[in-house]
Amino acid sequence: MQKLITASAIGLALALGAGGAMAAPDWSKAPGKKITVLYPGASPMEWILKGTEHGGARGLKKGESCASCHDEEAADMGKKMATGQKIEPKPIKGKAGSIPVTVQAAHDGANLYLRFSWKQPAGGGEKMDKDNQVKLAVMFEDNKIERANLSGCWETCHQDARTMPDAKDDKKTKYVKDGDVKAGKFYDLIQWTSKGAKHDGYVADKRVMEGGKGLVEAKGEKKGDEWVVVFTRKLAGGGEGDIAMAAGKTYNFGFAIHDDHTSGRFHHVSLGYTLGIDAKADITAAKQ
Ligand code: HEC
Q: For residues 242 and 103, what is the distance between their CA atoms, to the nearest angstrom?
């Protein structure tokens, strides 16, 4: 019996060792893309699609993406909302309008690795989330939701969601119109928090922060004034609300940073981009 236990202990140690061998990729070989996340104010899809309010509504309906019009000016846009000049009824004093983030991706045939790095902007606002100075969430979409290729995470953002200015239901989360996880109509969602938690969920008819089996690890640290966050996610996914990723394919992708202890809608968000696995896209995860 003693022998058996020892043998299985060795087996376990070997298995763990093998797990450790899927070490992070060589990031110096993964080109970084600068993506500026902006403070969106209260700009739900209902606002985006209303031609009398949003200058881009008509272009979007014709098939132009948010990024095609706004990619270069994300910082200027964010400033308008952070200062309350536009669509933000509750501006936070000293809030950064935008944060430039370097995004890198790689894979090793089994796992996708995503690395985000950015400089901590000035803060000092109300501590809505006392536990976490920062949270970073990423959403992926498998080309099944209408317009997700144009508008990224914005498809999940609605005027009746909690923390929105006129919301009546303080439990209502993000959702996708006709969202249905069984029918594949969802955004896969992973999140890292600076306190050290990780979440693997999805957004379908509502936001769920669990059920996924794809997220292996979410690690972040602050070196000097720079945050570095790395996600390790099984390409195959495998859980509820996980999309299965494969080489040669591209996915819609966006991310958000809850900076300076914020929660709910008070985050900085990216426009929608594409992530390719060994495929040409805004960000390509090449095999290492
Ligand atoms: C065809 C081009 C076009 C597209 C596509 C487009 N927009 Fe716009 N957007 C504009 C214009 C023009 C304005 C008005 C800018 C101004 O006030 O002069 C604007 C304004 C905004 C603003 C208010 C801040 C500002 O700078 O005025 C936000 C937020 C915004 N757009 C977000 C989005 C999002 C999110 C999408 C995609 C879901 C999107 N836009 C798609 C052209 C576009």
A: 21
CA distance 54 to 238: 39
pLDDT of residue 24: 78
Closest CA relative to residue 92, chosen from 125, 121, 122? 125
- Over the chain (288 residues), the average pLDDT of each successive run of 10 is 48 44 84 98 97 97 98 97 97 96 97 98 95 98 96 96 93 95 97 98 98 97 97 98 98 98 97 98 97
Per the rule left: phi > 0, alpha: psi between -120 and 50, beta: everything else, 129 is beta
Question: Do 172 and 274 touch, CB atoms closer than 8 A?
Answer: no
CA-closest residue to ligand 1 atom 43: 56
Distance (angstroms) between ligand 1 centre and the Cα of 37 equals: 14
Using the mean position of ligand 1's atoms as its centre, give its distance from the Cα of residue 232 in Å: 33
CA of 143 from ligand 1 middle (Å) equals 23
> For residue 155, which atom of ligand 1 is closest to its CA?
38
Q: What is the dihedral of CA 79, 85, 90, 94, to 10 degrees?
A: 40
What's the pLDDT score for residue 16?
45
Terminal CA-CA length for the chain: 43
- For residues 255 and 137, the answer to whether their CB atoms sit within 8 Å is yes
The answer to whether residues 71 and 129 touch, using CB atoms and an 8 Å cutoff, is no
Q: How far apart are CA 116 and CA 135, in angstroms?
A: 12
Instruction: Please check whether residue 74 is in contact with residue 81, taking contact to mean a CB–CB distance below 8 angstroms.
Output: no
* Encoded tokens for 201: 């969920």
CA 18 from chain centre, in angstroms, equals: 29
